[in-house]
Amino acid sequence: MLLGNEAIARAALEAGICVATAYPGTPSTEIMEALAEVGEQCGVYVEWSVNEKTAFEVAYAAAISGLRSITSMKHVGLNVAADILMSSAYAGVENGFVVVSADDPSMHSSQNEQDNRWYGLLAHLPVIEPSNAREAYKFTKLAFELSTQYKIPVILRTTTRISHTRMPILLEDDIPTQRNCKGQFKFDTSRWVLVPGNARRRKLELMKTWSAIRENEGREPLVTIFNPGIEKAIIAGGIAYSYVREALDILGYRDKVTLVKVNLPVPLPLKPVKQVLEYSSEVLVVEELDPIVEMQVKDIALTSGFKGRIIGKELVPVNYELNLETVYNAVSKFLGLETTSEKIWSSVEQVRTDPPIPPRPPVLCAGCPHRETFYILKIAATKAGLKTPVYTGDIGCYTLGFQKPFETQSTCFEMGGSIGVASGLAKVVSNPVIAVIGDSTFFHAGIPPAINAVYNDSNIVVVVLDNMTTAMTGHQPHPGTGVSATGKQTTRILPEKVLEAVGYKVYVINPMRVKESIEIVAKAFEEYRKGVKIAIVSRMKCALEVARIARRAKIVLPVYTIIQDKCTGCMACINLTACPAIMVEPGAKKPRILGELCVGCGLCASICPYKAIEIANTPSPDYEKIWVEL
Q1: For residue 392, is pLDDT > 70?
Q2: Among 149, 278, 463, 587, which residue has the least CB neighbours within 10 Å?
């Protein structure tokens, strides 16, 4: 029983990879996590890279040295790696190289839902798309074969549903534990040095390869035709195919239409599509997000003189994830059937709970260090006389700072954007500008804009929220942890050292010490008003990591309680922290702390004006060390 991501990792090992790289990002993260667990045992070099561009370059270096390699990232991560992606298509590879792009339709954990099949068309690279976790396993190996055959990178495009769905998978091969991972770089400046003259020649070679794939790769399993010869045809790929098949089963039409399963959406093979168009009068194209396949089908239809009708986004939504209901409705209309989606639910066993499970919007965890830092920033800004500061935000758990009561994230666009946008705002607005960025994000994309702000004399404050891990994606290491993907100790790089080196005056605070930190930050803000380039590093470990460490080491953390006799019901603890461990019972006038959720950060006790919040247990001596030490 493997997740789609675990299936990809397993298949890559079976395919004989020697190098695997990634930057963590949902929904792709588990690929590298699975590989990191067994990499050393299998003789594979596994790396959490500083960002996706670097991850691509490291894995690509192996591929041009004759070794199979894989790099994985979420869809927006491929934007970061797009520069080397485009050039790698021209130069090609010497052995199989697979680039996993995990797209996120409906934006479950992303700032957009771009369809990365476009990158295949843009770069003239083939895109393989599985329909389920089992196919993710099989098609990863097929992607390596295709890459090896044509000597170009191959994009394996998955989506959240594929990445995070479990299926029973029959493993086809053992994992080789003895592999020759010593590559050989063949000197060939005409290929590897893409100056204009060489690039022009390589572009011609790339287009020959592109044409060959379109002409020759219409074979199964890249394209499969079910029930050929029927006038009505449906073309679908990826998760959309799974929904189409299920909808046809419910409608009783599985054998009454031609069904074309496309697992190579880019470039769409010519021969099987032409074959279907020869006998079809109407064709429905079902795909998630953009009309990539539909566009290519219409192009093939136009050039081959097809006189029938091709329908796609007229019936199939262009936004958000597809589901069985939306696909069922589209297929029903295409087939001219008068039916409702109620038929679906009568044929599918549904899980119901009583009472219904309530929605759970994302919130900062109990004890999250960002909660302390946001409170400190707001109080210190008021104390220093900063009026209506703009807090430019970034990608991470701390993006939730846009919510009340914090309101310390005024923007959020992309990794590293907090500092770059802040640098620009400082040139055009009169508000104080404070850029808030996480530690992993700082190393990923925050250093260049931090340098840019100093070089171009932008008066901003940079705040690095250092919780000593890549928290949002599952606590992966980064350069600030001094630990590699496989757990080896390596050089630890501190954000304050980098910032000091490029010209910032840096203050490091421990946000657990709320009052002390407010004084330090207020002083820093006062210097900022005088034109000093200020950076603040707020260092406190992720609360989830602290809880895990405490359990393993049998360290007792404080658990706070509200003394009801002292409490006046002012609700400052709730209104100023929004901590999920503090609640008010229905009908009650005073809050209480849920001991099972409290991890002892102490923010509420620091805020309470009546000193009504106290430690209820006997914590271990020096428990605070695990919050601030690696």
Answers
A1: yes
A2: 587
Decide if domain 223-347 falls under CATH 3.40.50.150.
no
Torsion of CA 291, 293, 296, 298, to 10 degrees: -70
Q: Which residues of 564-595 are buried (b: 16+ CB within 10 A; e: fewer)?
A: eeebeeeebbeebbbbebbeeeeeeeebebee
Q: Report pLDDT for 348.
A: 65
Q: What is the pLDDT of residue 204?
A: 96
Superfamily (CATH H level) for 2-216: Thiamin diphosphate (ThDP)-binding fold, Pyr/PP domains (3.40.50.970)
Helix (H, G, I), strand (E, B), or coil: what is residue 97? Answer: strand
SS3 208: helix
* Neighbouring residues of 373: CB distance < 8 A, sequence distance ≥ 6: 463, 465, 511, 538, 540
Q: Which fold has domain 554-628?
A: Alpha-Beta Plaits (3.30.70)
- Model confidence pLDDT, tens digit, residues 52-92: 999 999 999 999 999 999 999 999 999 999 999 999 999 99
Indicate whether this model's pTM tops 0.85. yes
Please choose, from the candidates 127, 107, 131, the residue with its C-alpha nearest in 3D space to the C-alpha of residue 117. Answer: 127
Confidence bin at 472 (pLDDT 50/70/90): confident
Start and end residues for every CATH 3.40.50.920 domain found in the chain: 223-347
pLDDT tens-place string over residues 13-22: 999 999 999 9
369-540: which CATH topology? Rossmann fold (3.40.50)
User: How far, in Å, are 95, 367, 611 from residue 461 at the CA level?
Assistant: 47, 25, 33
Residue 621 φ/ψ, nearest 5 degrees: -60, 145
How would you classify the pairing of strands 19-22 and 45-48?
parallel
Q: Kindly report, residue by residue over 276-312, the tens digit of the pLDDT.
A: 999 999 999 999 999 999 999 999 999 988 989 999 9
**Residue 170 pLDDT more than 90?**
yes
Cα 377 to Cα 383, 385, 461, 548, 557, distances in angstroms:
10, 12, 11, 28, 26
All CATH 3.30.70.20 domain ranges of the chain, comma separated, are 554-628
